[in-house]
């Protein structure tokens, strides 16, 4: 009977066949331990010399790393492994012999691994990170579908810039100029006026010459947008959503979190409500902590965000940033017009901003003023202004960066390991 490593947990005591690759191997004169992987998981195959024919035992000792195989044997319980079971191998059929697989169990440098990303994806930790990414995506759809949101897909090729014009990827659209989307937000606002509560999930692009552990050139964003919703109400959706994905990963990715050596006690603490601190108080806090390099009106850098996050050891909302350091579309804060109704959600453990969100300007005159003040091409925002001409309503939304969220929940240092094929400064291959 053909099965998979994951399904084999329901096959204890039965003889099964699994299509697998050889990830690693150890052997002595009497026994060989095959580390098998098949995409669904990693499992040990035990080949005992006394229990198989000589040919099979010699084969087990000689198979090379990443050769593809059909292995047949009985699934038995093994309490010592993370998986809880292993295979007593009876028969091995080699499908393809792999020679000189470049990624060996020894340590390789990051650039070497990134050059071999197409193969590195097979490694146990990389496999675990992608499974966690997949779980976050699955939980995202579950959360928004259960809460009355409709998924709407904004375009990738666009004529307008939501987040400022300095980081746009330019391309030609026949005879016109076009840009790769930095954010689907403006289109999601139009969608919210048609469907009430909407969310998108898609790739976004930033031609940003940043080389940090938090920056990708191409990343995936989840962008919910809600009509008749204040910024305050939006914060409640954001924290419920983030707590939900953390809980989903804790429940459904136990083996992966273990493979990554993640300290899950930090994730167990992620419960709503999340702490909120105003930008003003954050500046005061940083001054008290001895950060004299920052003053009111400056944007926070990574060390500032990390200091604030460490203080709470939980995701924390920094709210009401100064108007001048935020995009054109944010609603002024009625309590202090120098600031806007917005928040960044900062992840714990130094992972930085994972969400940027705000209430959107719903008054057409103010919006026109802001578009002009930001030197944006008014022509390409006519559709956006229409939303304020025909039944304008208070509305709010946010964008969660998938890769930063995966990095935080997985506990991997750098976002490059959270994207299957990351686009980085100076890296377009593979
Ligand atoms: O704060 P940002 O730029 O916000 C927006 O684009 C809004 N239009 C979203 C909205 O309200 N609909 O980006 C949102 C999130 C950030 O918090 C971060 O998690 C992620 O996107 N992000 C990046 N992730 C990886 N690499 C980059 N270069 C990123 N830039 C932003
Ligand atoms: Mg931001």
UniProtKB/TrEMBL annotation:
At the top level, the lineage of the source is Bacteria
Keywords from UniProt, A to Z, are:
Aminoacyl-tRNA synthetase, ATP-binding, Cytoplasm, Ligase, Nucleotide-binding, Protein biosynthesis
On whether DNA damage is a keyword of this UniProt record, the answer is no
Oligomeric state and interaction partners are given as:
Homodimer.
| GO CC terms of this entry | cytoplasm
Which SUPFAM superfamilies does this UniProt record tie to the protein? Class II aaRS and biotin synthetases (SSF55681), Nucleic acid-binding proteins (SSF50249)
Q: Name one GO biological process term.
A: asparaginyl-tRNA aminoacylation
Catalytic reaction equation(s): tRNA(Asn) + L-asparagine + ATP = L-asparaginyl-tRNA(Asn) + AMP + diphosphate + H(+)
> What name does UniProt use for this protein?
Asparagine--tRNA ligase
Any coiled-coil ranges, and where? none
Supply the Pfam families for this chain. Answer: tRNA-synt_2, tRNA_anti-codon
Provide the Aminoacyl-transfer RNA synthetases class-II family profile domain boundaries.
Answer: 130-430
Q: Which GO terms describe its molecular function?
A: asparagine-tRNA ligase activity; ATP binding; catalytic activity, acting on a protein; nucleic acid binding; transferase activity
Q: Which InterPro entries match?
A: Aa-tRNA-synt_II (IPR004364), aa-tRNA-synth_II (IPR006195), aa-tRNA-synth_II/BPL/LPL (IPR045864), Asn-tRNA-ligase (IPR004522), Asp/Asn-tRNA-synth_IIb (IPR002312), NA-bd_OB-fold (IPR012340), NA-bd_OB_tRNA (IPR004365)
Question: EC number(s) per UniProt?
Answer: 6.1.1.22
The UniProt entry's sequence similarity note says: Belongs to the class-II aminoacyl-tRNA synthetase family.
Q: Give compartment(s).
A: Cytoplasm
């Amino acid at each position: 009977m053909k099965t998979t490593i994951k399904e084999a947990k329901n096959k204890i005591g039965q003889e099964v066949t699994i299509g697998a690759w050889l990830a690693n191997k150890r052997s002595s004169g009497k026994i060989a331990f095959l580390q098998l992987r098949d995409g669904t998981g990693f499992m040990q195959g035990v080949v005992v010399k006394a229990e198989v024919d000589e040919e099979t035992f010699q084969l087990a000792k000689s198979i090379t790393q990443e050769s593809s195989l059909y292995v047949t044997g009985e699934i038995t319980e093994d309490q010592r492994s993370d998986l809880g079971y292993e295979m007593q191998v009876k028969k091995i059929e080699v499908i393809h012999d792999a020679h000189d697989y470049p990624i060996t169990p020894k340590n390789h440098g990051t650039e070497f691994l990134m050059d071999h990303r197409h193969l590195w994806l097979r490694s146990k930790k990389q496999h675990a990170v992608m499974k966690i990414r997949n779980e976050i995506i699955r939980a995202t759809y579950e959360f928004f579908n259960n809460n009355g949101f409709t998924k709407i897909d904004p375009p990738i090729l666009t004529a307008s810039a939501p987040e400022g014009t300095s980081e746009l990827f330019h391309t030609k659209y026949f005879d016109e100029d076009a840009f790769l989307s930095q954010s689907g937000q403006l289109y999601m606002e139009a969608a919210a006026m048609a469907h009430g509560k909407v969310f998108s999930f898609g790739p976004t692009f930033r031609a940003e010459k940043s080389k940090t552990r938090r920056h990708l050139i191409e990343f995936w964003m989840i962008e919910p947008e809600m009509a008749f919703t204040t910024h305050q109400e939006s914060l409640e959706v954001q924290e419920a959503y983030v707590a939900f994905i953390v809980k989903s990963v804790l429940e459904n990715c136990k083996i992966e979190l273990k493979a990554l050596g993640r300290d899950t006690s930090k994730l167990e603490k992620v419960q709503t409500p999340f702490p909120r601190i105003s930008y003003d108080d954050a500046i005061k806090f940083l001054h008290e902590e001895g950060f004299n390099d920052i003053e009111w009106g400056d944007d926070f850098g990574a060390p500032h965000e990390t200091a604030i996050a460490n203080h709470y050891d939980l995701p924390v909302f920094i709210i009401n940033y100064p108007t001048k350091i935020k995009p054109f579309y944010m609603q002024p804060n009625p309590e202090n017009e120098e600031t806007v109704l917005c928040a960044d959600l900062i992840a714990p453990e130094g992972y930085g901003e994972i969400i940027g969100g705000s209430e959107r300007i719903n008054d057409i005159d103010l919006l026109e003023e802001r578009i002009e003040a930001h030197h944006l091409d008014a022509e390409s925002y006519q559709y956006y202004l229409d939303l304020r001409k025909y039944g304008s309503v208070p509305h709010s939304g946010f964008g969660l960066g998938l890769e930063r969220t995966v990095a935080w929940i997985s506990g991997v240092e750098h976002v490059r390991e959270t994207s299957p094929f990351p686009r980085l400064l100076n890296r377009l291959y593979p």
